[in-house]
Amino acid sequence: MKNFNVPKSLLSILIAGSFSYNTAADKINSQKPNIIYIMTDDHAFQALSCYGSDLIETPNLDRLAKEGMRFTQSFVTNSICAPSRATLLTGKYSHKNGVIDNATEFDGSQMTFPKLLQTAGYKTAMIGKWHLKSHPTGFDYWKVLPGQGSYYNPDFIEMGTQKRDTGYVTDIITNDVINWIDQNKHEENPFCVIYNHKAPHRAWWPGPDHLNTFDNKKFPIPETLFDDYSNREAAEAALMEIDSNMYLSSDLKVTPENVKKKNAYPDNNNPDRYQSYWNSLERMTKKQRIAWEEAYKNRNQEFLNQDVGSKEFVKWKYQQYMEDYLGCIAGVDDNIGRLLDYLEKNGLDENTIVVYTSDQGFYLGEHGWFDKRFMYEESLRMPLLIKYPKEIKAGSVNDKIVLNIDFAPTFLDFAEVEIPDQIQGESLRPILNGKAPANWRDEMYYHYYEYPGWHGVKRHFGIRTDRYKLIHFYYDIDQWEFFDLKKDTFELHNEIDNAQYQVIIKDMKERIKDLQIKYEDSDSLSRNYIDQWIKSGHTESPF
Ligand code: SGN
Ligand code: CA
Fold first, then answer.
1. How far is the CA of 41 from the centre of ligand 2 (A)?
2. Does residue 291 carry a pLDDT above 70?
3. Which residues contact 338 (CB under 8 A, 6 or more apart)?
4. What is residue 423's three-state secondary structure?
5. 3-state DSSP call for residue 336?
6. Which of 309, 449, 510, 521 could bridge across to 100 with cysteines, CB 3.0–4.6 Å?
7. What is the pLDDT of residues 385-401, one digit of tens each?
8. Chain centroid offset of residue 167 CA
9. pTM of the entire predicted model
């Protein structure tokens, strides 16, 4: 009994202490899920084994699909980097958040989901590629790459201060994410971290672990590698061909000396590319550089035996492109495995939502291309995997049309934060719970603006349903394209004048107008932007 002889004053301190430690709000917060949003840069759905890839095995990304939900129709609303990121943060189309292209600075004073989560008691962090020009807002911690960032020994801006880290970018970003989670996992508050990779962005420089991973693999040649672009003027005008726009030096790592020996295009017309190759190499430590040069010796030998300008040469370029691009993805896959292991070992896997996606899709030789931007399938579709054992059935696959405007409302919904009216997307939570609303959207609206600009992809907007796609290219062109995706999966046959489709086309033109009203967009908005630019005395392109 004497153990109970505790002074009254101390008892009341203990009781008060335990109450203040366990307030109702803290209890609710500790039950709210943590959120890890992983976004790579330019990762095509064609390059994940859980999407049936014949190019690569991605065992760790596949783990997310096995333990969560895989989406087959996840689309970006403007297929380019900065706009995709601004849409993620705001849940709004580009014309509403202001970032219509890579040249525009994000206005960080606007509403974003990380700010709303922060207000609701979440600890928030932004680590990796940011690309929105202004400094991040709404994060307790941020460490981002300046601009596009570098693959080897990259510079970072950490809470406003720039410094260089040694190592490979994918490994460094993952280390930083794991360290930040480790420091915040015991907090009363749930956490939300945006974990954005640079990989596998051009110029596809693989890390030290994957310099030779794909050397002996022969990749299947895409059926449309030699597309003739018939009836598709905008496709014909684009400058993103493996043949004539992919550089041998900066993109494919043939030394400038060797390129010069064969006077090979396109590098011979653009010596800046040699400099950009040297710049990347010069960032390396001696050890990294020795390993790099050793790894690319064979390719350089092979190059010297090529018949530059032949069809066979285009196929050879494609093989080298795939080796490097997939080498970057193998590094991403390893690192995501590391993060998933960390979460399991620390008991964080049950109460954490893990999302994997890319800022848009990418061409892996389809239509003869690399890059993105077009509303065609390869760049419109994003891989999307979401795992959250408490609410998502393992191994499920969903074919609803979901968009990148849906991420912000989804996270707010899971955090039980009210979704502001200005958000244009819908929460995916019911779909993830297996209870998709009967009236879920059956069409999507798209709008791309960055023209004149890199790769010469003309401005366009359009609509896609389960089966059909209608696109309008405008600005210095006025052309409509219509595809029946069921009959023409590769989008090679523009059926805009086919009598058989006229009723559907007319209906879809109406539906585009309805969508423009719904999202408060129109093509004249972007024309005004250019007009104002020119009126204010500029003569050059704003991009
Ligand atoms: C760079 C690339 C382009 C790419 C843009 C935008 N050229 O300019 O190929 O389209 O980035 O990419 S490079 O030779 O400098 O790599 S985005 O992902 O940021 O939108
Ligand atoms: Ca991108």
1. 4
2. yes
3. 174, 178
4. coil
5. helix
6. 449
7. 999 999 999 999 999 99
8. 22
9. 0.93
